[in-house]
Amino acid sequence: MREIILSFPKQFKIGFKAAKGIKVLGNFKKLLICGMGGSALPGEVLKIWLKEKEIKLPVEIHRNYSLPFNVDKKTLTIIISYSGNTEETLSAFKKARREKLKLVAITSGGNLLKICKRSKVPLVVVPKSYPPRLALGFLFSSLMKVLTNSKIIRGISREILSLESKIKLKKLEKEGKNLAKKLKQKILLIYAPEKICVLAKIWKINFNETSKVPSFYNCFPELNHNEIVGFESFGKNFHTILFIDKSQNPKILKREILTAKILKEKAVESSFVFLKGKGVLPKIFSNVILGNWVSYYLALEHKKDPLEEKLIAEFKKKMKV
Fold first, then answer.
1. CATH code, 151
2. What are 165-170's contacts with CB under 8 Å, separation 24+?
3. Which residues contact 202 (CB under 8 A, 6 or more apart)?
4. Average model confidence (pLDDT) for the chain?
C-alpha cells in the first residue's frame, strides 16, 4: 500500500488524460452523482471546490439504489463505480437509462464498463486494481475533465495538472507515522469545520477500511449542540482528531480549541491536524494523503493488512445468497 500512496499524486494527470474527449452536452441545471464508498468521494470534493469558487451549481450525491425523485431532463447523471460492479450504483444506472436521462460513467471495469460500451453511454475508463478509496485522484480528475469538456465548469485544467508538484509526500508520511503512534487501540473521532467535513469522512473511511478500527466523524459547529454531551459518561477509550484550517471562521477555531480542552477534562485525548497548501485542491489532497499515511501506519501498529477487507467481502457474498 505504501507504493500506492507514494504514487497517488500521479493519478491526477492520468485521470485527466483518461477523460479526454468524453463529454455530454446539454442545458444542465444540476448534477446527480451516483456512487458508494470511495466512488462517491469525487462528488464530495467537487462540492467543496464549487463552494470555495462560489460557483452556483447544485450537486446531489446519491448513495442508494434507484434514483432520487427530483431527477429531471436538466440533470446530468454521473455514475461512478470504481469496480464497475457496485450493486446500488448499477441499480441507479439502469433506472437512469430507463428514464432516458443524460448519462456519463466513470469506472475501471466490471459490468458497468460492459453495459456502457454495449449501449454507447459516454464512458471514462481509469486504471484498475486499486482500492476505491486510494483511486480518488483518478476519479476526481476524470470527473473534472468531463465537466470541463461538457462546458459545465471551466478554468480547472492548470489547477488539476499542477497538483502533483504541490503535494509534499515525504513530509506528510513523517507526520502521518507520528500521529498513528498516538492512536493505537483507540476509537477515533474526526472533527472538522462544516465546509470541509467531507475530509473528516474520508479519514473515517480510511480508518475503517485500512486500519480496521471503529471510527466516526462530525462537524463544527453542530457537534457542540449534541455530541459533546456524550462524553459525560465515556471518555478514555476515544481519541479525537480536529482539523484546523487557518482560513476558517475564528468562531469555529475557538470552538475547536474549547472542545479539545473540555474533552481533555473527560480523559479524551485530542490531536490537531492543520490543513496545508495554497489553494483549495492542494489543501484537500494534502489532507487526504496525510489521512492515507495515518491509516496505513495505524494498520501496521495493529499488525493488520492495510489492503485486506475480509468483512466487506463476506458481506457482499452473503448478499448474493
1. 3.40.50.10490
2. 166/277, 166/278, 166/279, 166/282, 166/286, 167/8, 167/9, 167/277, 167/282, 167/285, 167/286, 167/289, 168/276, 168/286, 169/5, 169/6, 169/8, 169/9, 169/289
3. 41, 44, 133, 136, 288, 291
4. 95
pLDDT digits (tens, 9 = 90+) for 40-67: 999 999 999 999 999 999 999 999 999 9
Q: What is the 3-state secondary structure (H, E, C) of 292-315?
A: HHHHHHHHHHCCCCCCCCHHHHHH
Q: Is 310 part of a structural domain of the chain?
A: no
Cell numbers at 115, concatenated: 453495459
d(CA 321, CA 308): 22
Residue at which a domain ends, from 145, 163, 181: 163
CB neighbour list of residue 311: distance below 8 Å, 6 or more residues apart: none
What is the tally of structural domains in the chain? 2
Same domain as 145, residue 7: yes
Phi and psi angles of residue 52, each rounded to the nearest 5 degrees, phi first: -65, -35
Q: Look at residue 79 and give its three-state secondary structure.
A: strand
* Maximum distance among all Cα pairs of the chain, rounded to whole angstroms: 61
Q: Are residues 228 and 192 part of one domain?
A: yes
Q: Which pTM does this prediction carry? A: 0.94
Q: What angle do CA 127, 96, 48 make, to 5 degrees?
A: 60
Same domain for 159 and 199? no
Q: For 20-34, b where at least 16 C-beta lie within 10 A, e where not — what string?
A: eebbbeeebeebbbb
CA angle, corner 277, sides to 272 and 282, nearest 5? 110
The CA dihedral of 145, 150, 154, 155, to the nearest 10 degrees, is 30
Residue 200 pLDDT > 80: yes
Closest CA to 188 of 171, 169, 209: 209
